[in-house]
């Protein structure tokens, strides 16, 4: 099964999913899209055999609600490390912010924060940073799909935005870059992920089951009949033919009674099977 899980601020993603598994007597759990401990919001969680399908989930784009404060600086670009106040700064106006956001929208390269999960020769960047080791991070290709200014408080020099970005974009770096355009620095004070792919966070419920698998996957879901599932369960072959797919070419996920039982690729009905959940297939056939 698949769930929306609300990760609270101050927790690691690993801690959040393990707590969820323990509280709900789940043996195996996994997730896609790690959140920093200082961030909160949506994680997509899979349980038991469905953890094998996590790599297929449509999670290229993510959306965030962000609050940040200008004229403050930290090594992590948030409140997770020591924060210093910048002295003798120039007040930023709303017109400057609007201009800066237009520049930021065009950004296609980004250097991740040194306090990130990026690996340098097998070691996480944040571990090297904590040990005061010198290293550099390469710029990533990114895309800002949408950036909306919700509020700018000129008195408090704070900003609230909603931003939809490509996978691998660091929001903390985005805020840091925005501040640099305005000739200052800033720290993120609230970072909440509200959307992954087509899956939206509805509120702050601890978890919610995802029942519509079409929202999770950007791949054709092929609903098997009782006869089809017998064909798929044939352990002696990694290929088969389905008449109902004779006009379709592309990747497919096999579904039976709203359960994922495998995936493969169809070439006009001739199917190459990449993965089958034999334990689940056996259980469903015998039920």
- Structural class by helix and strand composition: alpha+beta
Q: Per CATH, what is the topology of the largest domain?
A: Pseudouridine synthase
Element order, helices and strands? EHEEEEEHEEEHEEEHEEEEHEEEEH
**Which superfamily, in CATH terms, is the homologous superfamily of the largest domain?**
Pseudouridine synthase
Mean pLDDT: 91
**Rounded Rg:** 23 Å
Range of strand content: 35-45%
Biggest beta-sheet profile: 9 strands, mixed
User: Outline, from the CA principal axes?
Assistant: elongated
Helix content: 10-25%
Helix segment count? Answer: 6
First-last Cα distance? 18 Å
Which CATH-level-2 architecture of the largest domain?
Answer: 2-Layer Sandwich
Q: Number of folding domains?
A: 3
User: Would you count the extended β strands for me?
Assistant: 20
Summary of the model, kept short:
This protein is an alpha+beta fold and 287 residues long.
Task: Note down, in words, how this protein is organized.
The chain is α+β, with helices and mostly antiparallel strands and 287 residues long. The protein has helices at residues 13-23, 94-105, 125-130, 171-181, 226-232, 278-286, and strands spanning 2-7, 29-32, 40-47, 61-70, 72-73, 84-85, 109-110, 119-120, 123-124, 140-141, 144-153, 158-166, 186-196, 199-200, 207-209, 220-223, 239-241, 249-256, 259-267, 270-276. It has three domains: 2-60 and 198-215, 2-Layer Sandwich (Pseudouridine synthase); 63-191, Pseudouridine synthase (2-Layer Sandwich), CATH 3.30.2350; 219-286, Archaeosine Trna-guanine Transglycosylase, Chain: A, domain 4. Helix content is 20%, strand content 37%. Helix 2 packs across helix 4. It is elongated.
């Amino acid at each position: 099964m698949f769930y929306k899980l609300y990760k609270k601020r101050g927790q690691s993603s690993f801690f959040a999913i393990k707590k969820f598994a323990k509280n709900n007597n789940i043996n195996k759990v996994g997730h896609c899209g790690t959140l920093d401990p200082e961030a909160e919001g949506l994680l997509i969680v899979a349980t038991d055999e469905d953890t094998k399908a996590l790599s297929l989930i449509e999670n290229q784009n993510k959306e965030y609600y962000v609050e940040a404060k200008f004229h403050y600086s930290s090594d992590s670009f948030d409140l997770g490390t020591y924060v210093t106040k910048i002295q003798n700064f120039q007040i930023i106006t709303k017109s400057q912010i609007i201009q800066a956001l237009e520049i930021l929208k065009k950004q296609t390269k980004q250097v991740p924060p040194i306090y990130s999960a990026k690996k340098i020769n097998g070691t996480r960047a944040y571990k090297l940073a904590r040990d005061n080791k010198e290293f550099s991070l390469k710029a990533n290709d990114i895309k800002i799909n949408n950036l909306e200014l919700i509020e700018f408080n000129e008195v408090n020099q704070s900003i609230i935005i909603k931003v939809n970005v490509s996978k691998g974009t660091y929001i903390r770096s985005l805020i840091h870059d925005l501040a640099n355009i305005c000739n200052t620095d800033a720290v993120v004070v609230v970072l909440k992920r509200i959307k992954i792919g087509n899956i939206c966070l509805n509120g702050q419920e601890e978890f919610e089951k995802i029942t519509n698998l079409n929202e999770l996957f950007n791949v054709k879901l092929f609903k098997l009949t009782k006869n089809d599932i017998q064909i798929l369960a044939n352990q002696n072959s990694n290929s088969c033919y389905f008449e109902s797919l004779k006009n379709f070419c592309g990747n497919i996920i096999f579904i039976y009674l709203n359960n994922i039982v495998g995936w493969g690729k169809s070439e006009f009905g001739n199917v190459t099977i990449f993965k089958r959940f034999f334990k689940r297939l056996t259980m469903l056939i015998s039920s």
